[in-house]
Write a structure and sequence with these properties.
homodimer, about 325 residues, alpha/beta, Rossmann fold, about 50% helix
Chain lengths: ~325, ~325
């Protein structure tokens, strides 16, 4: 029985082996993945990002259990740590409370850390997600540590993106929030029992109104009233427009988790009804194809030149005789 | 008088125009930059990164003033906000207290936000830094919002990298800290008057000892004792090994800023004595050349294929008839 057949039959050890092959960029892993690719496209991808200190790990833990309980579909969690490019250790995954999750064979957790260049992790994550999708997981949670650009771009490859905030994390949090607002399908203020939670919720609501140009009425759960969304701004039917809710949770107490899962299921239905799912899939795959193409073309080019020639070009730049752009032009011209 | 000549003569408006051209990727900007490139290599590049809530803006403000006062060299601040890929607004720069800095014509501030793909900002930042270097700034502070992978990689292109922490930012901060520890030349615990500062300092010191495998004696400023560093671990002379200090500041009160500048000047001397400056420059320029090469090769390839052909390849992937890797192989094979 091949590795792929074992994975399709539900063998978790075979799946773990494939993921390791992918992370190590072994050709047999990519071959197996190409064979599995026709089986992908079934899972709902959920990106989860948030600044440090927001209680993301606990919230993810609760969401996984609630998604299992409510939908019976299996859940895979990919914990991505792009802030560890040096140590190679993935930390978040170990910190998600395994004891709560490991009892359920329908939940699978994989930690990933970056090795090598920026961008490499995004590519590997995409491949890992494809493998989990083919393996039949109904929900794939892509969780990133931190909320920098790399993290947001990884989370944003998902169908539904959750952004987690918490009260009282200081001024800089406002800056991050402004940046990732447009990526968020669902906003969650966790630790909502802390002082400042109301302010955080209102600030997010105001920012959303400002960004969309629509004043909204928010119900006591932080959901925008349906009548106020959609039609007012564009004349399109309400199901074609998604107004991100701002929800409150206290993940350590399990409070508000049900509402978050409601919103996730709502967004999934919205995407299917509006054609957004097909569009997001297409964007994600297009980015993946371009990134792979870029890597392949560079590798091919570097193989075609001698080491001495490449060293000489770099030496010209280091001695300031050619700018990086000039050196690249020279290398490309020499090829012709 | 050309734009380049005006920049070399100290014309700040000309410099601002060039930076805008570079940010907008206008060819004339890159041409001017290639002309200026031989004048680069003089500035000391200082990367500053830290999680939200660490008080980075205030600290940067104080450091800029102190560097000006102590070294008389001019200071440029590049505030990079990779977490704003969507709004295009750069926030940090506006939040550095301009009133303290704008009175001094020897300090120049430029904010940058990401437009487009991950990696693009790193490339643009490198070009902006080159322009500022050629323009004669003695210190270039590259300040990033957030501490994700993108931020760390940008900060790390500097000669000296400062990582800022603060007490009481929650558990996730530990995770980020572990990841960026190896990138730090100088660690600063800001807001050192808050409870938990001693713990934060000790945790960083322990992590550093763990990473280097050397137990150290720390003086009351958080500097590792010279006798304990260097020789013990490698047998090399002490000036060849840099043991990152863990310093305390209360930036709003101006406390500890002098010690941070001492450490920066110390690290600069160390880099010059050890050959580390040449090595770091070479690494940085090598990354820049490879990134430019990758972009150029992709652009060239996409130009050489018809739109229909590229669309057909993507369609194959979206319909799951080919994996992303297979589609890329097919595109490359069709070229031959």
């Amino acid at each position: 029985m091949s590795l792929s057949d074992r994975i399709l039959a539900g063998d978790r050890l075979a799946l773990a082996r494939l993921l390791t092959q992918i992370e190590n960029e072994q050709p047999e892993g990519f071959d197996a993945l190409s064979g599995l690719f026709p089986r992908t496209g079934q899972a709902h991808l959920l990106g989860i990002t948030g600044a440090p200190g927001t209680g993301k790990s606990t919230l993810v833990n609760r969401l996984a259990l609630e998604l299992r309980a409510r939908t019976t579909a299996t859940v895979a969690i990919v914990a991505v740590d792009p802030s560890s490019p040096f140590t190679g250790g993935a930390i978040l995954g170990d910190r998600i409370r395994m004891r709560d999750l490991t009892g359920d064979p329908g939940i699978f957790i994989r930690s990933m850390a970056s090795r090598g260049a920026l961008g490499g992790l995004a590519r590997t994550t995409a491949a890992v997600v494809d493998a989990l999708d083919a393996a039949g997981f109904g929900w794939i949670l892509i969780v990133t540590v931190g909320a920098g650009q790399a993290e947001v771009e990884i989370a944003r490859t998902a169908h539904t993106t959750l952004v987690i905030e918490a009260p009282g994390l200081g001024d800089d949090v406002q800056a991050i929030k402004a940046g990732i607002l447009e990526a968020a399908d669902i906003l969650v203020v966790n630790k909502a029992d802390l002082p400042g939670a109301d302010n955080a919720v209102r600030a997010l609501q105001s920012s959303l109104e400002l960004a969309s140009g629509v004043r909204r009425v928010w119900d006591h759960h932080g959901r925008p009233e349906p009548a106020e969304t959609g039609q007012a701004e564009t004349g399109r039917a309400a199901h074609e427009v998604w107004a991100p809710p701002v929800l409150r949770t206290v993940a350590v107490l399990g409070e508000g988790i049900g509402e978050v899962v409601d919103a996730i299921l709502g967004h999934r239905s919205y995407l299917e009804a509006s054609g957004g799912r097909v569009r997001r899939d297409r964007e994600r795959l297009s980015v993946e194809v371009h990134a792979l193409l870029r890597d392949r073309l560079l590798a091919e080019f570097l193989m075609s030149r001698s080491r001495a020639e490449l060293e000489a070009a770099l030496e010209q730049v280091c001695s300031r005789r050619a700018s990086p752009r000039q050196a690249v032009e020279n290398l490309l011209a020499a090829r012709a």
